[in-house]
Amino acid sequence: MSHEIKKENRVIYLDNAATTRMSDVVKQAMEPYMDENFGNASTMYGYGEEAREALTRVRGVIADTLDAKPSEIYFTSCGSESDNWAVKSIAGALKKKGSHIITSRIEHHAILNSCEYLERLGYEVTYLDVDEYGMVPPEAVMRAVRPDTTLITIMFANNEVGTIEPIMQIGKIAREKQVLFHTDAVQAYAQLPISVRSYPVDALSASAHKFHGPKGVGFLYVREGVQIPSFIHGGGQESGKRAGTENVAGIVGMGKAAELAFSGMRRRVRKETMLRNYLIEKIMHEIPDVRLNGHRSRRLPGNVNVSFKGLDGASLLILLDEDGICASGGSACNTGEERISYVIEALGVPEAYAPGTVRLTLCGDTTRAEVDAAVESLKRNVKRLRE
Ligand SMILES: *Cc1c(COP(=O)(O)O)cnc(C)c1O
Questions:
Q1: pLDDT tens, 57-70?
Q2: Residues with catalytic annotation?
Q3: What share of the chain is helix, strand, coil (3-state, %, to 5)?
């Protein structure tokens, strides 16, 4: 145990967009539901009562964070499931009206691969280009809408370059054109204030392990009145929309993580943003031939994505790892598959820079000392690789 802690302390974890560390408070909140409150939430006897109450409580907690109603929150097994459910089921339900979907080139694979699956079933998908900052232009969404468009799905914020999309404008276009609008908010939830009262979104995905909750649990928000067919058929869980005995401990952990994340959100985000800006400025000042990818200000608080001219990002990541620094090349989900990430390609990052891309993502607990150490390591290793 002490060995593990020592090992952890040595590591500078700057890959919070891939996953986050679960806090002890979250773990403690979950424990009783793996032990004395193990009962099945769907049983009639008193023993499932604790589990049942926990689900109701967490549904309320999550709903409150979005200004939603508890009946609009469906628990799922992860962000990918929420994305799959929204895209496939909304498109499927509206097939009579049309079979055209609008998305962007820089969505997470959970969205892109769901869309490709639907294409194989005969749907048509428009993959919108983004500008050099990774923004989806609302005018492009407007132009892409056709009479047979049934769904627009655009992410709230990008996981690789951190760009925050113009969700308000895109949502308004969707409303005006009477097309349903889903947003993958897996990166944005608990980082940005999102109220479904002001944002015209019909469905929204989130995942607990991206905000210091456990892995294997997420949720899908679906606006009241929007008909979404069930995704997993079976028992009557989740109002009959998502069968399967609930991951009660996981859901409790997600609720606790949401409570923690939202209680000190403004302060944490302010601190994280300042540290992020400090990291960006230090890299730009101390290392030559580097460019920042994504938008300078419309950016997730913890995201830094930079490209170093004339080097290979994967080699740099290995050297960073030797210094105990965990960073990534882009999305955690496509490591090794391609040399240049499709997101970096979509932004049109120049050829001399694109292969040398690394992503460093902070969290509320990241310290200035860790950032300083990361910059020192980057400086030394970039120089080494260029020599
Ligand atoms: C991580 C992530 C997902 C997938 O969430 P999982 O819970 O890991 O399945 C989907 N979309 C975005 C933007 C993500 O960052």
A1: 999 999 999 999 99
A2: 333
A3: 45, 15, 40
Phi, psi at 305, each rounded to 5°: -135, 115
The response to whether residue 108 sits with its C-beta less than 6 Å from ligand 1 reads: yes
The reported pLDDT for the residue numbered 3 is 41
Would you say the CB of residue 191 lies under 6 angstroms from ligand 1? no
Confidence of residue 123 (pLDDT cuts 50, 70, 90): very high
Residue 56 main-chain phi, psi, to 5 deg: -60, -45
Backbone dihedral angles phi then psi of residue 359, each to the nearest 5 degrees: -115, 130
78 CB within 6 A, ligand 1: yes
Q: pLDDT tens, 200-243?
A: 999 999 999 999 999 999 999 999 999 999 999 999 999 999 99
Q: For residues 357 and 344, is the Cβ–Cβ distance under 8 A?
A: yes
* pTM of the predicted model as reported, rounded to 2 decimal places: 0.95
Q: Is the CB of 280 under 6 A from ligand 1?
A: no
Q: Which amino acid is at 5?
A: I
Query: Strand, helix or coil at 205?
Result: strand
Task: Kindly list the structural domains of the chain, giving each domain's residue range(s) and its CATH number in brackets, ordered by start.
Answer: 2-16+265-386 (3.90.1150.10), 24-263 (3.40.640.10)
pLDDT tens digit string along 180-198?
999 999 999 999 999 999 9
- In angstroms, the CA 44 to CA 166 distance is 46
- Residue 6: the pLDDT is 41
User: Which pair of tokens denotes residue 45?
Assistant: 């006897």
The residue whose CA is least distant from atom 6 of ligand 1 is: 79
CA 331 to ligand 1: nearest atom: 15
DSSP one-letter string for 181-250: EEEE-TTTBTTB---TTTS--SEEEEEGGGTTS-SS-EEEEE-TT-----SB-SSSTGGGTB-S---HHH
